[in-house]
Amino acid sequence: MARKPRPKTKSQMRKKVEELVLTEEDEKILDKVWDEMRREILERRKRKEREERRKKARQILALARENPELRNAIFKEKKGD
Length: 81
Hints:
Blueprint: H1 10-17, H2 24-66, H3 68-80
């Protein structure tokens, strides 16, 4: 049995729960949970991007250690900034 697709936007989520009778407090809780989930997703994405940048930097440093021409080119570019 296939699962129903999960809501991808806040409006889709609200539409799913419209059938239920929500109090103002329930809506506040729903908004809070949604914001926390969104924040967590953004933090994970930023963490992953940072890790990717670090990984690429380590690869460049490893190549620069092996290749003096690349190392010199990096230093020249850095001095020019």
